[in-house]
Amino acid sequence: MAALLALAGCDAGPTAGTPIAGTTTATSTASVEVTAAVCKRFADNKALKDFRAQRASGQAIDVNLATRATDALSGFSADAVKKDLDSGVSVALNDAATKALVVGTGIAQGAFDAPAFEKLVGEVDDACRGH
């Protein structure tokens, strides 16, 4: 086939498996690094660590911790839109950060929904697993 195309003055084009110029077949190093950094900051966040520990111990979540944890989670909304962030992590962070504001609205009245908040944190933890 290539010989016929050459006789006709045509280029046979790239062979199978040859990447098209300007595209990539693998996750970029920048994406891996950005995702790992965001996930590490999420896992190491003091307020979220304190929240996880208190929930694991079965203790009630006090207003101060609920406020700190909600503020911390909603603060990750800027990370959710980072250019090189893994899409699964981005979606989980964006969803959790947005819902954290809703879940946290009743804190001052003692209506913090700790199980719902724990679910949001868990979804981001799950998305970050392996990064």
Report on the structure:
The chain has 6 helices and no strands. The two termini are 45 Å apart. It is mainly alpha-helical and 131 residues long. The mean pLDDT is 81.
Give a brief outline of the structure.
This protein has 131 residues and is an all-alpha fold. It has helices at residues 2-7, 29-44, 46-57, 63-74, 87-103, 114-128. The longest helix has 17 residues, at 87-103.
State the distance separating the first and last CA atoms.
45 Å
Low-confidence stretches: none
Number of strands: 0
Question: Helical region count?
Answer: 6
Largest sheet features: none
Radius of gyration: 23 Å
Percent strand? under 5%
Summing up helix and strand content along with how strands pair, one would put the structural category as mainly alpha
Shape: elongated
Q: Please, what is the average pLDDT? A: 81
Helix amount, in percent?
55-70%
The helix/strand series, from N terminus to C terminus, equals HHHHHH
Tags for this model:
131 residues, mainly alpha, 6 helices, 0% strand
Strand and helix map with partners:
Elements: H1 2-7, H2 29-44, H3 46-57, H4 63-74, H5 87-103, H6 114-128
Helix pairs in contact: 3-4, 4-5, 5-6
